[in-house]
Amino acid sequence: MNASNHTIVIKVGGGEGIDPLNLIPEIIELRDAGIRVVLVHGGSHETNQIAEQLGHPTRTIISPSGNQSRRTDKTTLDIFKMVYCGKVNKTIVEHLCRAGAHAIGLSGIDAGIWIGKRKSAIRSVENGNTMIIRDDLSGRVESVDAEFINSLLDSGLIPVLTPPAVTSDGIAINVDADRAAAATARAIGAQELLLLSNVSGLLRDPEDRTSLIDTIRGETLDLAHEAAQGRMKNKVLAAEEAILGGVSQVVIGSASGDRPIERARAGSGTRFCNEVVS
Ligand code: ADP
Prior knowledge:
Helix 2 (44-53) crosses helix 3 (74-98) and helix 5 (177-188) packs parallel to helix 7 (232-244). The protein has an eight-stranded mixed sheet with strand order 5-10-2-1-13-15-16-14, with helices on both faces. Strands 9-6-11-12 form a four-stranded mixed sheet. It has a two-stranded antiparallel sheet with strand order 3-4. It contains eight helices and 16 strands. By secondary structure, it is of the alpha/beta class. The mean pLDDT is 95. Strand 3 (60-62) and strand 4 form a beta hairpin. The structure holds adenosine-5'-diphosphate (ADP). Adenosine-5'-diphosphate binds at residues 13-15, 18, 42, 44, 178, 197-199, 202-203, 206, 227-232.
């Protein structure tokens, strides 16, 4: 494959212990090798800390199936925008620029890059009771402006993308960054999606760091869904969506340590193969 057509979407998490700046030297190397890189980031831990300082601590919604998400009321969304689109996004772009890259930081709202649908009702399990929440400002990305992202890549820019997304009628919504990264990888025809986080990959038992699942193929996809708990559930869904959407290689791996991108690309972590579709 011609290196200039090769595109990698890298999503770096915002969980405790992750430093997205750790990826910058390797992103520069990829750029120098003619590989197109889109970086998507989170910011959950920093948002939790700042929300606490601002007197509006994070509340977590747990769905009946065990999925976890941030309760996003209006104030939470304002804090979310400040941290994700402001502090985290601009710090990454600042450091990419300092390393000599031509980077641009954008949220999914900007130019309508990520158009999504707001959830009209969310079921939340609290003290064993299921409640319905109707005013949450969260949802899911449904379309990605691939043409715009490709135009940035064609201009030699490194797009650094972050939630929120926006609805078709212009309302900002909190979306899961892993699934937004997967939707982006599908839409722009990326060959690789790396979901880098604070764990070495998908663990068979989340409490046992030695129980890494190294490869997921079609017949083991159920196993992946069973193993994933809490926030890992969205990563597995994202990996599945990317693979089904034609991304050849998806890896859930670690953002920490030496050369995390090279290690993930070499399959260190949990690799999802496109035999899933068969
Ligand atoms: P990020 O913020 O990097 O996107 P998350 O915090 O959303 O990452 O998801 C990673 C977390 O998922 C891990 O730190 C771990 O606590 C949790 N987790 C739940 N189930 C698993 C599992 N089976 N394997 C690995 N991690 C898991």
